[in-house]
Model the fold of this input.
Amino acid sequence: MTDPSTTLTSTVLLTVAVDIEPNRVADFREAVDRLVKSAIQEPGVLDYWVGQEPGNPYRFIFVERYADHDALAQHQASAACTEYVAALPGWLSSPTVASVDNATSVAVIDLAPTDPTE
Done:
């Protein structure tokens, strides 16, 4: 777990939600696996997480954190990312929702559930 006193400064946070056609999920997951393996090796990529929305096996959420806008641009120009982006329209069942935020100073806190019997 992250130290709650940790402060993240001057980072770029990208969140993306994608809805995938049911018959394309396997292809999508294979491509995402390649993308993540590549992204986590890139300099300037601080976090790269992909998850499935509970209750909706066709919606995937990307949460990516970069050291700065240059790191995001380098990631977007990478071979793995350009390959993924080129294939993405063929997998989508609805328009993609994306958000890019500048996090100038964000304190990390532990929001793990507590045991109600304690």
Helices lie at 25-39, 69-77, 79-87. Strands lie at 7-19, 45-52, 59-66, 97-107. The mean pLDDT is 84.
